Amino acid sequence: MAEAAVRYLRSVGAAPVEPLPRPELRCVGEDERAPVGQAEFRRVLGNFATGVAVVTAPAADGEDGPAGFACQSFSSLSLDPPLVSFMVGRTSTTWPRIAHAGVFCVNVLAAHQGELCRGFAVSGADKFANVPYDAAPVSGSPRLAGTLAWIDCTIHAVHTGGDHLIVVGRVDALGATEEDEQPLLFHKGRFV
Asked: Containing domain of residue 66, as a range?
């Protein structure tokens, strides 16, 4: 689409478009007040319903088992190349294990999988106890049974975003169930 726009502008003899200067980016300083309070931020943004997924990774060298956490910040990012993204808190104890593996699988949860999600939302427990899964075809990450879809990825990039990290994954393989099930949604602090 952008190429078509450039061809058109050249064909009509339009002057080249100058790019706008990049804005200066900076963090809020320690001595500056945040523009909104955390409680109000959560309350207002809780009105945006999100799907729920579990991000998993295989055990990397020296680790006892696979890693995984519940995630409501998953999103598609790009068609060409196929990229997805999710956000994870910088204090996450699971993220370093996923980063060490270098790969992950996003498991999109079905409406009946609320308890599974709660199990992956806790810290310090064996999240995979009694959870059926097989290996995703490219990464070997756990592909959880009964999910609506799975996306097998390699870590492409990681960016900072306040108290979170923005993880971009290159999609290597994916699949979805053929069943007509509803997704697990999170809205105003609860599953709906």
From this structure: 43-191
**What's the CATH number where 132 sits?**
2.30.110.10
Indicate whether 38 belongs to any domain. no
Burial of 144 (0-12, 13-18, 19+ CB in 10 A): buried
List, as one string, the DSSP characters of 127-189.
Answer: TTTT--EEE-TTT--EEETT-SEEEEEEEEEEEEETTEEEEEEEEEEEEE-SS-PPBPEEETT
Structural domain includes residue 16: no
Compute the average pLDDT of residues 168-178: 96
Distance CA 104, CA 140 (A): 8
* Alpha carbons 66 and 57: distance in angstroms, whole number: 6
Distance, in Å, from the CA atom of 157 to the CA atom of 124, rounded to the nearest integer, reads 27
Q: Please give the model's pTM, rounded to 2 decimal places.
A: 0.81
List all residues 6 or more positions away from 125 whose beta carbon is below 8 Å from its beta carbon. 119
Instruction: Quick: pLDDT tens for 135-159.
Output: 999 999 999 999 999 999 999 999 9
How many domains are there within the chain? 1
The answer to whether residue 48 is domain-embedded is: yes
**How far are the Cα atoms of 51, 55, 192 from residue 138, in angstroms, in the given order?**
24, 15, 33
Is 26 part of a structural domain of the chain? Answer: no
22: DSSP letter: P
Cβ 173 vs Cβ 152: under 8 Å: yes
| H/E stretch holding 103 | strand 103-108
